[in-house]
Automatic annotation (TrEMBL):
<keyword id="KW-0663">Pyridoxal phosphate</keyword>
<dbReference type="InterPro" id="IPR015421">
    <property type="entry name" value="PyrdxlP-dep_Trfase_major"/>
</dbReference>
<feature type="modified residue" description="N6-(pyridoxal phosphate)lysine">
    <location>
        <position position="197"/>
    </location>
</feature>
<dbReference type="GO" id="GO:0005737">
    <property type="term" value="C:cytoplasm"/>
</dbReference>
<dbReference type="GO" id="GO:0030170">
    <property type="term" value="F:pyridoxal phosphate binding"/>
</dbReference>
<dbReference type="GO" id="GO:0019343">
    <property type="term" value="P:cysteine biosynthetic process via cystathionine"/>
</dbReference>
<comment type="similarity">
    <text>Belongs to the trans-sulfuration enzymes family.</text>
</comment>
<dbReference type="GO" id="GO:0003962">
    <property type="term" value="F:cystathionine gamma-synthase activity"/>
</dbReference>
<dbReference type="InterPro" id="IPR015422">
    <property type="entry name" value="PyrdxlP-dep_Trfase_small"/>
</dbReference>
<dbReference type="GO" id="GO:0004123">
    <property type="term" value="F:cystathionine gamma-lyase activity"/>
</dbReference>
<protein>
    <submittedName>
        <fullName>Cystathionine gamma-synthase</fullName>
    </submittedName>
</protein>
<dbReference type="GO" id="GO:0019346">
    <property type="term" value="P:transsulfuration"/>
</dbReference>
<dbReference type="Pfam" id="PF01053">
    <property type="entry name" value="Cys_Met_Meta_PP"/>
</dbReference>
<dbReference type="InterPro" id="IPR015424">
    <property type="entry name" value="PyrdxlP-dep_Trfase"/>
</dbReference>
<dbReference type="InterPro" id="IPR000277">
    <property type="entry name" value="Cys/Met-Metab_PyrdxlP-dep_enz"/>
</dbReference>
Length: 381
């Protein structure tokens, strides 16, 4: 019987300290671990290869994601890159056309050397995905909800299509975290995420994770993580485990506040369009209800105005902080075209529906009425 995820997140690693019976697992900063016998491999040997806190965090996230195991890396990008190491030279990789800007930058850079062939597709369009999979493909990387437009891709349908075509499916689960979505339950082979965001939630560390459905594929990722030296540091693992303890509560409260703010924005004539999967008019609303346990903490808005107007509005915000990132306890505002998605070409942004004046909000844990008050004042010219 699987444990309730709230229990799993709280109990992970507790009462494991044999030296002092510390309740909270202590942080182990040592680079090296002493052997009793040179010929016997100890549980921990050298800190790049593994450290106890990183292992505890990996096991906890794997349990929440319903995975056979997980590899915790030093960033979300390192986690995505880890998926690419064993692909054959020149492998085709299909990716959601509105994926995170850094993901596109990585795939494009690998593509320039011929290492991979990245192909960008609107993964909410099943026919477009089928056409793209007609050519031999090694991996499909889907981001749902996509960021910043919050489009919802059908994970069950995409995993069936990918597997029929002989491709593996990886899902970037950063925006929702395992508290709100578990891609492996819908047939995905990998769930990757930036631990930096909702999972840690306190905006004080950078990390990533690859969760694997098939235990047989785990050893290879562990091998590459050690070989390339991309495992997470002990202190970052410690912070992320502490953040994970309250993930379920934070995610629930942030979803509730985001729903309240999205409804307020939708009713305001100064806003031309609101992207939020929780709104009944959102094209992915029914799918999100089926596939997710909440609608998430992100809202994107299009003002009824010009580019300069969007810049002015975010600069007038007093409670929201104008900064990159998402998922933390603090609310942030961002103009993707100028900030998070600036690495994309203008053409790629336009294909993905990211206008120069789109504003993305990440809703934190402040009082909903005060966040609405801040938006209301900032929207007054
Ligand atoms: C931030 C982010 C990443 C990259 O994670 P880092 O921890 O910053 O390396 C990948 N995917 C999505 C959706 C993200 O938001």
């Amino acid at each position: 019987m699987a444990r309730d995820p709230r229990t799993a997140a709280i109990r992970a690693g507790l009462n494991t300290d044999a030296t002092w019976n510390a309740v909270i697992p202590p942080i182990s900063l040592s680079t090296a671990y002493r052997r009793e016998d040179p010929a016997v491999q100890p549980a921990f040997d050298y800190a790049r290869t593994g450290n106890p806190g990183r292992s505890t965090l990996a096991a906890a996230i794997a349990e929440l994601e319903h995975a056979a195991g997980a590899v915790v890396t030093c960033s979300g990008m390192a986690a995505i890159d880890l998926l690419l190491h064993d692909l054959p030279f020149g492998a085709r990789v299909i990716c959601s056309h509105d994926a995170y800007g850094g993901t596109r930058r990585l795939l494009d850079a690998r593509g320039r050397g011929g290492r991979l062939i990245p192909v960008y597709v609107d993964t909410t369009d099943i026919d477009a995905v089928s056409r793209a999979l007609a050519e031999p493909t090694a991996l499909m990387l889907v981001e749902t909800p996509s960021n910043p437009r919050l489009r919802i891709s059908d994970l069950r349908a995409l995993s069936n299509l990918a597997h029929e075509a002989g491709a593996e499916l990886a899902v970037d689960n950063t925006v929702l975290s395992p508290a709100l979505q578990r891609p492996l339950d819908w047939g995905a082979d990998y769930s990757v995420q930036s631990v930096t965001k909702l999972l840690n939630g306190h905006s004080d560390m950078v990390g990533g994770v690859v969760c694997v459905a098939d235990a047989g594929k785990l050893a290879n990722l562990v091998w590459w993580s050690n070989c390339a030296g991309v495992g997470a540091a002990a202190f970052d693992s410690y912070l992320a485990l502490r953040g994970l303890r309250t993930l379920a509560l934070r995610a629930k409260a942030q979803c509730e506040t985001a729903a309240e703010i999205a409804a307020w924005l939708e009713a305001d004539p100064r806003i031309a369009a609101v992207d939020f999967p929780g709104l009944p008019g959102h094209p992915g609303h029914e799918l999100a209800k089926r596939q997710q346990d909440g609608f998430g903490q992100l809202i994107s808005i299009q003002l009824a105005g010009s580019v300069a107007n969007a810049r002015d509005v975010v600069q007038r915000l007093k409670l929201f902080t104008l900064a990159q990132s998402l998922g933390g306890v603090e609310s942030l505002a961002n103009i993707p075209a100028l900030m998070t998605h600036a690495a994309m070409t203008p053409q790629a942004r336009s294909d993905a529906g990211i206008s120069d004046s789109l504003i993305r909000l990440s809703i934190g844990l402040e009082a909903p009425a005060e966040l609405i008050g801040d938006l209301d004042s900032a929207l007054v010219p």
